[in-house]
Design brief:
The structure holds two protein chains of two kinds. Chain A has a single domain (about 5-275), classed as Rossmann fold (3-Layer(aba) Sandwich). Helices cover about 35% and strands about 25% of the residues of chain A. Chain A has twelve helices and ten strands. In chain A, a hairpin with a 2-residue loop joins strand 4 (about 85-95) and strand 5 (about 100). In chain A, helix 5 crosses helix 6. Chain A is globular, with a radius of gyration of 20 Å. By secondary structure, chain B is mainly alpha-helical. In chain B, helix 1 (about 5-35) packs antiparallel against helix 4. Chain B is elongated and about 65 Å long. The relative contact order of chain B is 0.13. The model of chain B is unreliable at about 220-234 (pLDDT under 50). The chains are: A alpha/beta, B mainly alpha. The interface of A and B includes residues 1, 12 and 270 of A.
């Protein structure tokens, strides 16, 4: 007996992999494009031929069990791994048609365009105002009025302005954990990057502070492209448009978050997102 | 090691199987009561309905709790969504069995006999559809689900035939109107049972394939509302 396919009994349903109003990756321009990316820590290979497009003005979640390479890959996107001894990277990461690993690329300039938020908030031991103004200042902005405007705009962008506007001279270290993380986001967006990389930005926060960060991510994607590493499957489902599943240094599956969480192609993805391993 | 959520999934599946078995018992009671003109036999369907209602509430709670605690995704999510619908449909199916049983009792209590037209054939077709649709869901058998969907046309066609024959019978002998109404009621409920079996099959396909096929299947010969009788001129 011939195998029965969905096409045979419901051709309309079988064809419609992307229902109306659901964009496909081809519809969105790429903010970053990794091609054949390998990474070695000394003799140990941590990434294996990663090909992945980070779509512009979308949130892309990188998920996978500990040690799968997702944070390593994230750090490749603004050359943070250059700072690690013994790292060797081959392949390409293109941004606006330029390979960011081209030796002529200025990493300071790159990291202005591709900002990073870390798991643990890391405000400078300075005032709130100085934390946010720090980036624009080192990029040459000296005008106090212009810096005030940047600080306000960035704090508003990070949904923190209303909470700190009367205490801009207060130490950043006096803020709560959630506020410190939003301050770090304000600091990152103050230099007007194109892309924000977030490495488990809410893993140390309580549910209320986590909720605020997630709301913020959804607001920020209108202006920025966001790539976020998270161990929280519900968070990936809530905030991301696209999801990449990494396992043992390889990209196993990449697709719309709807697909990854409702009908993934790969069994390993299915097993991971449904909590059967990892 | 089997994890807690996998045990919960297995428990829910086992309860769905139990509920389907009880619905099957209700169907058998109603159909045997009809066939043997045995009111006592048919009335057993009422007892099964009570058990089905209790299981519906229990399974609703289990599913609700599973969503709240486990946040299922992928196949687990599709399974829970499909199960929720199947449980609801099983309860409705049990109601249709009760309707058939009520008419079977009514017919059994009549002093005069009447032919049951194509009803026995409908009963056999529905019994097989019920068995296979439930099996397809429990075993995630796409091929069997597809086969069930293809059989619905036959039940619809038999229903139309029954209605035509009853109209003819009543036109010939007005005294048969009471019998005719019961036969049409039975036929109509069997036709709905066939539809609900198709729902199970559609849920199986959704579960296995991840796509809904609702409202996309137009089997040959399917003509909605064609069974609506037109009064012949006398």
């Amino acid at each position: 007996m011939n195998p029965v396919t969905l096409e045979a009994i419901a051709p309309h349903a079988a064809r419609e992999e992307h229902p109306v109003n659901q964009e496909t990756l081809e519809d969105v321009p790429a903010a970053l494009r990794a091609t054949g990316l390998d990474l070695h820590y000394g003799s140990k290979q941590a990434l294996f031929g990663i090909n992945l497009v980070v779509p512009k003005n979308r949130v892309t979640a990188l998920i996978g069990p500990s040690g799968c390479g997702k944070s390593t890959f994230l750090r490749c996107l603004n050359r943070m791994n250059d700072l690690v001894d013994g790292v060797r990277i081959t392949g390409k990461v293109e941004m606006d048609g330029t390979d960011i690993y081209d030796p002529r690329v200025d990493t300071v300039s790159l990291r202005r365009k591709v900002g990073m938020i870390f798991q643990k908030s890391n405000p400078f031991p300075k005032t709130i105002w100085e934390n946010v103004a720090y980036g624009p200042k080192i990029h040459g902005q000296r005008d106090k009025k212009a810096l005030d405007e940047v600080v306000e705009r960035s704090l508003r962008g990070a949904a923190l302005w209303d909470e700190v506007k009367d205490n801009l001279g207060k130490s950043a270290l006096a803020l709560s954990g959630g506020q410190q993380q939003r301050l770090c986001i304000a600091r990152a967006i103050a230099v007007e990057p194109e892309i924000l990389l977030m490495d488990e930005p809410a893993s140390a926060l309580d549910p209320i502070a986590t909720g605020k960060i997630e709301e913020l991510i959804l607001q920020l994607k209108d202006q920025f492209t966001i790539a976020i590493v998270t161990h929280n499957m519900q968070q990936a489902g809530r905030v991301s448009d696209y999801t990449a599943f990494f396992y043992m240094g390889s990209l196993i599956e990449f697709g719309s978050t709807d697909t990854i969480f409702t009908n993934p192609r790969e069994k390993r993805t299915e097993d991971y997102v449904s909590g059967r391993f990892g | 090691m089997e994890r807690q959520f996998e045990k919960q999934l297995e428990f829910i599946l086992a309860e769905v199987r139990r509920m389907a078995d009880i619905v099957g018992d209700g169907f058998d009671a109603a159909s045997k009561g009809l066939e043997q003109r045995d009111a006592v036999q048919a009335s057993h369907a009422f007892e099964t309905e009570k058990k089905v209602n209790e299981l519906e509430i229990e399974l609703d709670n289990q599913i609700f709790e599973y969503f709240a605690r486990q946040h299922p995704v992928a196949t687990d999510l599709r399974f829970m969504l499909a199960t929720q619908k199947v449980v609801n449909d099983l309860e409705r199916l049990s109601d249709h069995c009760v309707n058939v049983a009520q008419s079977a009792i009514s017919l059994a209590n009549l002093n005069r006999s009447a032919g049951l037209s194509e009803i026995p054939e409908m009963v056999d077709a529905c019994r097989e559809m019920l068995r296979d649709s439930v099996d397809s869901f429990l075993t995630r058998d796409f091929t069997l689900a597809r086969d069930v969907l293809m059989r619905d046309d036959r039940v619809d066609g038999l229903n139309r035939m029954v209605v035509r024959q009853v109209i003819e019978m009543v036109n010939n002998d007005k005294a048969t109107i009471e019998i005719g109404l019961d036969i049409i009621r039975i036929s109509r409920n069997l036709e709905r049972i066939g539809d609900l079996c198709c729902n199970f099959a559609e849920e199986t396909i959704f579960l296995v394939e991840g796509h809904s096929v609702k409202h996309t299947l137009h089997q040959s010969g399917f003509e909605p509302d064609q069974e609506t009788p037109t009064t012949p001129s006398t």
